[in-house]
Fold:
Amino acid sequence: MKFRKIPLAFLVLTLCVSWANAKKAPRFQPGHQLTPEQAALVEKAIEQEKVLIKSIQQRTPLVETYIQNTRPDIKLYEVPVEDQYMLSRVDFGKGFFDKTYDTRSTGSKGKFFKGSFAAITGLTKALGLDKRFTYSPTGFMQMMFLDPTGFDEQHYALSFVRREFLGSVRTWVFDVHPKVSGMGRFYGRIWIEDEDGNIVRFNGTYTGPRSAEESKYYFHFDSWRMNVQPGIWLPVAIYVEETNRGEGDKGTGLKAQTHFWGYSLKLPTRDSENVSVKVEDAVDKSDDSQDVSPLQASRAWVTQAENNVLDRLVEAGLVAPLTPSGFETTVLDQIVVNLAVPNNLAFSDPVHCRVLLSTTIEATTVGNTILLSKGLIDAVPNEESYASIIALELAHIALGHHIDTRYAFNDRLLFPDEATFQKIDMYHTDHDDIDAAKAAQQYLQTSMYKDKLPSAGLFWEQLAERGKVLKALNTPKLGDSLLKPDGTPWMADLAHSAPKIDWDDLAQIPALPLGSRLKTDPWDDKVHMLNAKMYAPMNARDKMPLEVTPVYFKLQRYDAARLNQPAVPGAPGAAPAQPGGNPAAAPPAGQPEGDQPAAPQQAPGDAAAQQPSTTAPSQQ
Structure:
């Protein structure tokens, strides 16, 4: 075969032209042509994004991010090895900005986040959470926006994928990629509800301005919004997941959840050290007697301090408002009775439970109120484990370990929300915890739970085992940790009585994943029980104790959610849409329109049996 000689100059010229053309080649393919109906929906979505941003700028929600770093595991697939917790109350009227996300290529238009960085880190700094920053809190909050300054058809190309139900909300799904390079451009998929054109979910990542390599500085995420009020959709949760982040992090991963709540909280006073606090009028509880004994006066003084503190924490969005038919009243309060009656604990005022709206594992008492964190309630697997925690807090009350009575003076609680954690001391001393643990063990041995204490001990054993690496999860923000400073549980006797944790024993559930029990209404901060089946694990990987998992909502429109809410006597107005709803006629995600979903099959050994029975002991 005879080869032709190609002149070197021609070869060099050809390579240069090819390199130049390759350099000019677009990074993304153009989107598919949209039908007039699809294009009209996209235009509505672009306009609704602007409405959303304006609405958010009028809010001051709380933003909580919990991160777990993971490594591969042969039996469990992956296990957490480190964690980090961030909590902020954000004033979006000021905006927020972090130089890590400075949009240099977009000029002044790209600075939606410009503003006071203190607006998002006030609570974080108050809690001492900024000492070990590995991740940027603004980076996680940026994921609540698709593109706050440039989401339009000039900057993005969209391609229609399909129509899909998310719960009972019908959506149109589009793939999205940027037409114009820039730092932080969204690349992924969006779900647009078909009535008003609101983007209710978007899933993907952000890109760098020059190359795909720069995208490694951004995480992949799944961002959800909810119809919290008529015509208002707001961000409620974000799930982040990455594996093998960078060359130096081979074999590592990341899972994180960000949650938003407190959208209806009033804006605190920004230019003053004080905010107004509403204190309810005192109620006469003296029965028919004219006078009050010194003991009654002392107890009333403690109760006044308790009420002041609880009102302040509810106002700051840190404690859930009391719900008459909620988990804390229907389940936890009954467990209090189950412990108090057989132990002849005659309290002057009833003891009630409330929910602290944080993921951290902690508990404490405020007067005759037991506060359990949402993260703790979510992770507890059974009634006897709840009883062991409540017994510990009940002992604090019975032993007189009450809150500092200086809070009976209302003016001591006049401070900005970001200082709430600094100002209110709600933890007990180690000496108090030791005494309470001894008393709690006695309460349990006298109660209806005495034969199930080894099962309760499994939770404490699992908590101590995972507590070695999940230090942020077990670091209290308001109350007490369930673990001693050396990492052993306060209820050590229970942990010692428990059988050894066996991952292959599928009937043994020491702890549940985070988010297994309750959901928080992002608008009014009330907590509700999940309306979801709990299935028994099929393998060791299904257990995931105290772990972060993906978030998934069966969305409802506000009016539909209101109709499905149980009536609560005296409740003003209607409750907003809640995650986890399961309307009978709603096709699941991905179900074609017109197809009816089949009823879910019950798994053998359904873990629903693990729900607390709340059986009251007989009273003589």
Notes: The mean pLDDT is 74. The first strand starts at residue 62 and ends at 73. DSSP finds 13 helices and 14 strands in the chain. The CA atoms of residues 382 and 611 lie 6 Å apart.
